[in-house]
């Protein structure tokens, strides 16, 4: 007799969560999804998913729950708030927390889930919306062996690389913070480099082409600068994400009394962009903080 497919839930059908839910559906897994936006739930339903009007409606029948929200506060609200789902999941279910959070928060959430006889995989994700839609994410995961066994099919559906980083919650989140340190610094550096080049008279498209094929290139430069060239600041990942994530990095370093000068500088750049009203724009909008230049498709000088 074949093993029944696990019933999966996804809370948070944003650019990453919706792609993950679609990938689970393509793999043939039964999937329900919840998001506060009616139009997102409707779109999910049109693709064969089961949209819920509330996050706890299908809890008792759920084997695996992906929580794809913004931060630790939202994760804990989903799990333990007034309408928290943790108390309604059946014992032995696996919760995969995908937000970028501190290692300390991951450990705290795992301990609270254990009180409900629930397993947790600390499973922050990387790869962006396009890779989420293709089921090609990278997951930096830590948790008990039993949880990984139960989540094997679902993890294979949403990711091409699942790094198992240990049995304790927090190990995955700490490596994700290292990734976010690099991502934020690289985006800030890409913005600064493009602003400098434009100020010195370089053609932006030519500058991008040359650097993309030179030693100064980075994945973030190659991925984000096209948004700047197109004047397209619709958020795939917003400026405010890096205000939050680099803040988490700096907070953890503060506890360890460890200097992070590049992270601190990049964090200030994102905070400046957010304060100027660009917080909900694509993260490459940090380039807008530089004065005296005209970015592509921008009718004013910054």
TrEMBL record:
Record's keyword terms, sorted: Carbohydrate metabolism, NAD, NADP, Oxidoreductase
Positions in coiled-coil regions: none
Keyword Flavoprotein: no
Enzyme class: oxidoreductase
3-hydroxyisobutyrate dehydrogenase-like NAD-binding domain: residues covered: 170-289
InterPro entries per record: 3-OH-isobutyrate_DH-rel_CS, 6-PGluconate_DH-like_C_sf, 6PGD_dom2, 6PGDH_NADP-bd, HIBADH-like_NADP-bd, HIBADH-related, LtnD, NAD(P)-bd_dom_sf
Catalysis: reaction(s): L-threonate + NAD(+) = 2-dehydro-L-erythronate + NADH + H(+)
GO molecular function: NAD binding; NADP binding; oxidoreductase activity, acting on the CH-OH group of donors, NAD or NADP as acceptor
GO biological process, one term: organic acid catabolic process
Keyword NADP: yes
EC number assigned by the record: 1.1.1.411
6-phosphogluconate dehydrogenase NADP-binding domain location: 8-166
Active site (UniProt): 176
Function: Catalyzes oxidation of L-threonate to 2-oxo-tetronate. Can use either NAD(+) or NADP(+) as cosubstrate, with a preference for NAD(+).
Family: Belongs to the HIBADH-related family. L-threonate dehydrogenase subfamily.
This protein's name: L-threonate dehydrogenase
Organism: Azotobacter beijerinckii
